[in-house]
Task: inverse folding
């Protein structure tokens, strides 16, 4: 039997949504499944919620599904954030940003009262680093920023999309940094952030409250 683990994780996550919540909506394929589940509850149960999306893609899908959206202009808090990940380790630290929305995701996830990660089993790793770390950078002088990133021992690659430089929702570039293995995620993030021109990194440490991981139809819930 084949299982849609992303859908299973999303179905479990949507159980945490309650009336009146401001929901931080991450981005990615697993979050898309969550949005379908949330839209179903809104339609069938009359659930009253509003969402703050972390990406234009999430915003477009939520709007299409009839999920009410808001912004930080109206709410400066988030009750619960639901987001996916590219990697999650045994300490519930993450590498995120494969879709290019790491800055807005981190802004939302950081202030959320509760931050829940949803993922399929292959995203669980013993140590971060299998997935390249996305680093969002200012376009001006990105070549010099890339050179300084390389001094940390990683292989770097400017992200492209359809043969053109990928531009984030914040109008910045992303340099993907392959470290192979990351021993001290928090320290690495702090060091990379010191580089002038770096906006944010895709290393998320000490932020996750709960991880819902579905693997071959079986749900594992990890908590800090």
Result:
């Amino acid at each position: 039997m084949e299982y849609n683990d992303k859908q299973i994780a999303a179905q479990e996550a949507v159980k945490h949504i309650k009336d009146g919540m401001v929901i931080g909506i991450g981005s990615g394929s697993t979050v898309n499944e969550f949005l379908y589940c949330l839209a179903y509850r809104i339609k069938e149960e009359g659930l009253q919620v509003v969402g703050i999306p972390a990406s234009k893609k999430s915003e477009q899908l939520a709007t299409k599904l009839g999920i009410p959206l808001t912004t930080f202009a109206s709410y400066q808090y988030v009750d619960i954030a639901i987001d996916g990940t590219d990697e999650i380790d045994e300490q519930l630290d993450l590498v995120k940003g494969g879709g290019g929305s790491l800055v807005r995701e981190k802004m939302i996830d950081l202030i959320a009262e509760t931050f829940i990660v949803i993922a399929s089993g292959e995203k669980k790793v013993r140590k971060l680093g299998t997935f390249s770390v996305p680093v969002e950078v200012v376009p001006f002088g990105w070549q010099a920023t890339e050179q300084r990133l390389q001094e940390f021992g990683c292989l770097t690659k400017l992200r492209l999309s359809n043969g053109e430089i990928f531009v984030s929702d914040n109008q910045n570039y992303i340099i993907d940094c392959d470290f192979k293995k990351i021993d001290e995620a928090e320290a690495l993030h702090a060091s990379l952030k010191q580089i002038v021109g770096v906006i944010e990194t895709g290393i998320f440490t000490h932020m996750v409250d709960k991880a819902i991981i579905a693997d071959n139809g079986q749900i594992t819930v990890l908590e800090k």
Observations:
- The mean pLDDT is 96.
- Residues 5-125+205-216 form a domain with the Rossmann fold fold (CATH 3.40.50.1360).
- The chain has two domains: 5-125+205-216, 133-201.
- The longest strand covers residues 112-120.
